[in-house]
Amino acid sequence: MSERLGGWVALTARLLLGGVLLAAGVLKLPDPAEGVRAVRAFRLLPEPVVPAVGYGLPVLEIALGVLLVLGTAVRLAAVLTAVLLAAFVVGILGAWLRGLAIDCGCFGGGGAVAANQTRYGTETARDLALLTVALGLARWPSSRLALSPAPSCMEGRP
Amino acid sequence: MTAPSTADRRGRDRRASRADRAEAARERVRQAEQRRRRRHGVATAVVLAVVVVAGVLVQAARSSTGDDGVPAGATRDSYGFALGSPTAKVTVEIYEDFLCPACEQLERSAGTELRRMAAEGEVRVVYRPMAFLDGYSTNRYSTRSLNAAGCAADEGVLVEYHDQLFAVQPAEGGPGLTDRALVALGSRAGASGAEFRSCVVDGSYLGWTRKATDAASRAGVVQTPTVLVNGRELENPSLADLKAAIAAAG
Predict the structure, then answer these.
(1) ipTM value of the model?
(2) Which pLDDT score, from 0 to 100, does residue B6 have?
(3) Highest mean pLDDT out of A1-10, B2-11, B16-25, B196-205
(4) Out of A43-57, B13-27, B94-108, which region has the weakest mean confidence (pLDDT)?
(5) How many CB atoms lie within 10 A of CB B59?
(6) Is A149 inside a domain boundary?
(7) Res B13 pLDDT > 80
């Protein structure tokens, strides 16, 4: 019973993370130059890698989102998502602590905002919550309605 | 004496080996399953890496133009337009987007005074137009208006056209001026004729607009207006603060 319930919880986690990643990627995709500027605004990465990160991030987000929504290679996708979210948290906290006034550009946009319009607290809390979900999914990846069932799900059957 | 014990042993061995074989078979299945899973993971990781690398290349290609034209009269770095004496003690650099309302306010409050100071040799003003607000109009007005400004620079009326663009600035979120309206606006600034028209309509300086915006981003500009007085950024670019900073720098 509890294992069956766990499968549904994991499905919810997959759809939540996958949905957020797909939204974030799709919203960033139309304007590659804006993505690069948003990454640069964090003043964290060395300039030579900034364009690659700006161009590649939406693609990676969409790819991970597809894996999670379909339910294939769930553990791999969950681990990579957790790494990505951890990096986002570091970036946002870094901007916050250094007194930058920027929008994270998490769902497109990015760049400067008025000092009283930063949303670092909300952005950090959201990413930490998603990070927790991703880590949970990496630990227990077996879920309902998955394209390729995760290991424990198969072994659990007679 | 030895026969039964041998038979016993054989029986035990047979039973044991049957159990061993079954166990070995299960183990093989488990290992095969594990290999299959590992192959699946590696394959997915490889596909993921290929997709991301391809995506980077596609996105990079989409944001480059290969179009190297620079408007006439631009500063040596290609992206600024200077007014006043090159030897003035104070240089004021202004990064602005033609769709940015705060830039319009700055132009309205400080434009005339800056032009006077530039004309009298007190300051050198460098306009650094950029286009990063395409998401705030329905037809990429930031980029198209900057392209048109480049076209006006070729006609020698950059500053005049710049002022006209701010005078008719559309609201954020809606459609900006059409290319046709941008062409018509040229006549108010002294730019007309077939060359200006085709430059605006064909987007002759679209590549330059992207490079200008990219250069601004690399210079650390994340908002407009960004005003630098002798290289130092003003916290609050108002006329009063600007005059104070110019006085302090001069």
Answers:
(1) 0.81
(2) 67
(3) B196-205
(4) B13-27
(5) 25
(6) no
(7) no
Contacts of B135 in chain A (CB under 8 A): 31, 34, 108-109
Report the residue of chain B nearest A102, measured CA to CA.
Answer: B222
Residue A77 placed within a domain: yes
Give residue B5's pLDDT band: very low, low, confident or very high (50, 70, 90).
low
Contact A129, A107 (CB under 8 A): no
Query: What is the arithmetic mean of pLDDT over B15-23?
Result: 84
With contacts defined as CB-CB under 8 Å, which chain A residues touch B48?
Answer: 60, 63-64, 67, 76, 80
Q: By residue range, what is the domain housing residue A62?
A: 2-141
Do residues A137 and A14 touch, judged by C-beta distance below 8 A?
A: yes
Q: For residue A41, which of B74, B184, B223, B46 has the smallest C-alpha distance?
A: B223
pLDDT tens digit sequence for A73-129: 999 999 999 999 999 999 999 999 998 889 899 998 887 777 778 899 999 999 999
Distance from CA of A16 to the nearest CA of B (A): 20
Cβ separation of A63 and B48 shorter than 8 Å? yes
Residue A148 lies in a domain: no
Distance from CA of A126 to the nearest CA of B (A): 24
* Domain ranges within chain B, ordered by starting residue: 1-63, 81-249
Q: Report the candidate in B232, B140, B162 with the shortest Cα–Cα distance to residue A30.
A: B140
Give the one of B40, B51, B223 whose C-beta lies nearest to A63's C-beta: B51
Nearest to B52 among A32, A37, A63 (CB): A63
Q: Report the number of distinct structural domains present in chain A.
A: 1
- Partners of A148 on chain B (C-beta within 8 Å) are 40
A15, A69 Cβ separation under 8 angstroms: yes
pTM: 0.74
For domain B81-249, the question of CATH label 3.20.20.30 is answered with no
- Give the pLDDT band of residue A150 (cuts 50, 70, 90): low
pLDDT higher at B59 or B148: B148
The partner residues of B83 in beta bridges, in order of sequence, read B125
Contacts of B228 (CB under 8 A, 6+ apart): B91, B92, B93, B234
In chain B, residues with a C-beta closer than 8 Å to the C-beta of A43 are 220
The reply to whether residue A67 touches residue B51, judged by beta carbons under 8 angstroms, is no
CB contact under 8 A, B63 and A32: yes
* Closest Cβ–Cβ partner in A47, A113, A151 for B218: A47
Please give the biggest Cα pair distance in chain A. 60
CA distance B180 to B185: 9
Structural domain includes residue A25: yes
pLDDT at B107 over 50: yes
